[in-house]
Design goal:
alpha/beta; two-stranded antiparallel sheet; 246 residues; 10 strands; 2 domains
Amino acid sequence: MHFRVISLRGPMARLLVLVTVLLLAAWLVNPRLLRASGSPEVPIPVYRVETPQHAMALTINVVWGTEYVPQLMRELKDAHVPATFMVGGAWAEAHPDLVKQMKAQGDELGNHGWNHRHPNQLGFDGNVQDIERTNRTVEAISQTRPSVYAPPYGEFNQTVLRAAAAAHMTLVMWTIDTIDWRPSSSPAYMVNKASRLAQNGGIVLMHPTDRTVEALPEIIQALQNKGYHLVTVSQLLKMGIPRTDG
């Protein structure tokens, strides 16, 4: 039997060591980014999580509709279900008591940009500043730094993705859009859509509207009747592999 000793002095061996070190460094900085994309250089938008677990996440983007936020929070609390509130930084600054209540009742605080500007128009530095400003504001109010980012308008490009990664954020989209901002979207439509498209690792997108307040308890009940455990987005991300397809 012959053994071959691989020298670390060769160019290929040195390259292998360098790649290993870079991958380890990327994992230490942001393990979800590496696992989601397969490469530290190619961040991806997360539309769902591939997981064998019967779990889903509810997200609520908040930059308007403040009058409906306490009602949504009450429905979540009564159902003993958390949601991920993707809050705008300017909104959080104007409504710190609501942000504190979200944290206190077990909801997750995510980042929805500062004041709902189009991310694709901000450039790399502009997006990093927009994300970080919101993070600092939310953290100052709640002592919790967001780790998930929902881009305003659901708008992103490679520059926005790189900016989110530079801020150590996971850019999160959705699997099911209730389209609750549209007046013609009735509570029945929203409940039916959420129930019909439910899947392991799915992410449901909502906003604070009167129709959402009416639909939310039925959406929760419909998903639970199908055996789904409702968790925050960050909890869902730990259950499997983030995917770009909805």
